[in-house]
Every structure is written in structure tokens, then in C-alpha cells.
Amino acid sequence: MARVILFNKPFGVLSQFTDKGSEGSPRPTLSAFIDAPGFYPAGRLDRDSEGLMVLTDDGKLQARISNPKHKMTKTYLAQIEGTPEPQHIEALRAGVRLKDGMTRPAQVSVATPPDTLWERSPPVRFRKTVPDAWLQISISEGRNRQVRRMCAHVGLPCLRLIRMRIGDWALNDLVPGAWRFAAHSGR
């Protein structure tokens, strides 16, 4: 039976157990938070993004979660610069053409961050003259920096990105840097 770990990856942490690419001082990795031998990340989350990562000890489950052909939905909260207008939302919902091709349609809505949302360290830059807002975006593919690129494409640069859900697994009350074992239905 596959075992699953849910982890709330903090900002600035690499979504791998070793830092093979740094010159000088190593960057923080999953090994600073998770001491569970035999578990590997099912997919990636950019260093400058936060939130839910799923790790498993089962290679088939790892592939099913991370491979876009299985269309596992991933839901994000995106703090964006600017005010989202109906045309921005509709463009994201329809799919946008990025350099690597057309994205699948996304589920997008204007959102309010939950009361339990933690402060980011370092904080997001604040500018008095530029409004910001939050979007909830669900996608079923996983291109490199996809949500950030989609938002930028429609003119709403992403200031902060937090993955809240992967399939049936949700971040819920898991604080940054914390992890827990989770149930796996075997589907």
C-alpha cells in the first residue's frame, strides 16, 4: 500500500532533497523539513512558490500525480498585481497561448485569502499606487511556472503563488514547513 506525505513547502525551499545546482552556500531543500526515508516528491513546486507538495514511497502513484496526461487538478491562490477584469478571467478560463503552446482551460475566480493564510517571509512587495488582488486558479497540467506565466500573459503579474490542493489532497491547516501522513484511496 502506497504511503503519502502532505507537506507545506515554505517560500525559498527547493522541491527536492538535495541542492545540486548551487554555488557557495546550499539553498534549503526538503531534507531540512522531512526525515522520512524512501519518500519522493510527486511533482515540483517552484522555489518562489509556496504550499502543498505530495510525497510518496510508490513510484506508480508518483507518476500518476505528476504526469499531466492523468489530468490531476491542482488549485492555487495567486496574489496578482492589478485589478482582474472580466476579460482577464475569461482569457484564463479559455486557455492562453504561451511560448510552449496553448494551455488547457482553467477554472478561475476572484478569491479572498483564508483567515489562516500565513505571512510570507520575506513579505511580498507593497506599492501604494498599484492595487493587488487574489485569484483562485485550478489547472490540470503542470508546465514550468505555468500559473505565473498565464497570469503575466493576461497582464496580471503574480506576486505570490500558493498551491492549496492537488486532486483530493488539501493543505487545510498545515503550517509552512510542517508535514503529515495522509490517506490514499488507491485510485
Identify the quaternary structure here: single chain
Give the overall form.
globular
H/E topology pattern: EEEHEHEEEEHEEE
Q: What is the CATH topology assignment of the largest domain?
A: Alpha-Beta Plaits
CATH classification class of the largest domain: Alpha Beta
Strand content: 25-35%
What Rg is obtained from the alpha carbons, in whole angstroms?
17 Å
Number of strands: 11
**Structural class of the secondary structure composition?**
alpha+beta
Q: Biggest sheet: strands, sense, closure?
A: 9 strands, mixed
As residue ranges, the low-confidence spans are: none
> Distance N terminus to C terminus?
12 Å
Overview of this protein structure:
The strands form 2 sheets. Strands 1, 2, 3, 4, 7, 8, 9, 10 and 11 form a 9-stranded mixed beta sheet that branches. The protein contains 3 helices and 11 strands, in the order βββαβαββββαβββ. It is 13% helix and 29% strand. The model has no long low-confidence stretch (mean pLDDT 91). It has helices spanning 59-66, 86-94, 146-153, and strands spanning 4-9, 40-41, 50-56, 74-81, 97-98, 101-102, 107-111, 132-139, 158-166, 169-170, 179-182. The protein has 187 residues and is α+β, with helices and mostly antiparallel strands.
Could you write a compact summary of the structure shown?
This protein is an alpha+beta fold and 187 residues long.
